[in-house]
Amino acid sequence: MNIAIVIDSLGGGGAERVMLDLAKGFISRGHNAHYICLESRQDHCVEEGIPIHVLYDDRDLKSIVKGRSCLMAAAKLKALVHRIEKEFGEFDLFLSNLDPTNAVISNCNFDNVRYVLHNSMEEEIRRERKLGPIKFFRKVKAKKIMNGKDLVAVSNGVAKEALEYGLIKPNKVTTIYNPCDLQKIEKLSFADSSHIPDYPYILHVGRVVKQKRHDTLFKALSMIPDRLMVCLCKDVAKAKKIAKKYGVEDRVLFPGFTNNPYVWMRHASVLVLSSDFEGLGMVLIEALKCGTPVVSTDCQYGPSEILTGELSRYLSPIGDSKALALNISDALVSYPSIDRLPIFDEVSM
């Protein structure tokens, strides 16, 4: 099969990394997978053998999809696809990822398009509503692009929401958990660790955006005396400002963004996810594969599909710093066996 994975960029988000892993998985199974980005921004490393195509080298995402520019981007994307198909044959499948890309793809009239739902639509819209009517209506408009379309959801919860929320009426929704290259994670987790602190630490991996709730995270840390934390993120200055607000800046190390968080996961005492919402919560799966205990807020979708059975006790109400702190403290003392979990069978590549 010829497969086109179309996405905003190679920025440092989880969706971008997941789609790179998916491209690698397709190629390893004998398919042709092409990774098409709207803009040239890149944080993730690209493994050899994955063809990368960039629509615009000289424009940022906002200018690409603003107003009539979106139609121009669609025309440019169709031309790029035509050139690729001329060499490799017609695409059998297009996977469209994230709102800006969805806006462009929807104007291309490609056959066999699947729109990937990486997050909770309801929570994203609720967040934008708080930021004002303009942002709210833009987000609603972005989501309605998927009305009547075939969707792929990264968790059962996200799929159920798409069918029941009422904002859109998709043609079909299929749950396919994000792929996870378990062998790659294990290999990278044993990489050189000379740069890793030689003291015990709590780990958080994630972008510094409101969704990830660094305020909840650092407030929880303030309730756990004498414990140190490592935050892997790109916007270090913003994260430091939040840590300072809660009086824990002297107990948090900010190494910055890394393409190998797994070595940090293996050496961590516990990984914490503090988000208000997630589509799935890949860092939980990755840390568990590294043999590291995890604690998470009980987002409406995602974490409860991962932390099942004995591990469900380590789910905390969203925004509840005290409960999160208690679960972190418990996990630091004892944690159930995590040698084999059912979720690994669902996501394994």
Give a brief description.
41% of the residues lie in helices and 16% in strands. The chain is an alpha/beta fold. Helix 5 runs antiparallel to helix 6 and helix 9 packs across helix 14.
Describe the structure.
There is one protein chain. The chain is α/β, with parallel strands linked by helices and 349 residues long. The chain contains 15 helices and 13 strands. The protein has helices spanning 14-28, 61-65, 69-88, 99-105, 121-130, 133-144, 156-164, 182-189, 214-222, 236-245, 262-267, 282-289, 303-306, 321-333, 342-347, and strands spanning 2-7, 32-39, 52-56, 93-97, 113-117, 150-153, 172-175, 202-205, 229-232, 252-253, 270-273, 294-297, 315-316. It has a seven-stranded parallel beta sheet, sandwiched between helices. α5 packs antiparallel against α6 (133-144).
Uncertain segments are none
Structural class: alpha/beta
Assess the beta-strand content as a share of residues: 15-25%
Largest sheet: 7 strands, parallel
What portion of residues is helical? 40-55%
Instruction: Choose one word for the global shape.
Output: globular
Strand segment count: 13
Mean pLDDT: 94
Query: Span from first to last CA?
Result: 17 Å
Q: Spell the H/E element sequence.
A: EHEEHHEHEHHEHEHEHEHEHEHEHEHH
Number of helices: 15
Q: Strand sequence of the main sheet, in spatial order?
A: 3-2-1-4-5-6-7
- Rg over CA atoms: 20 Å
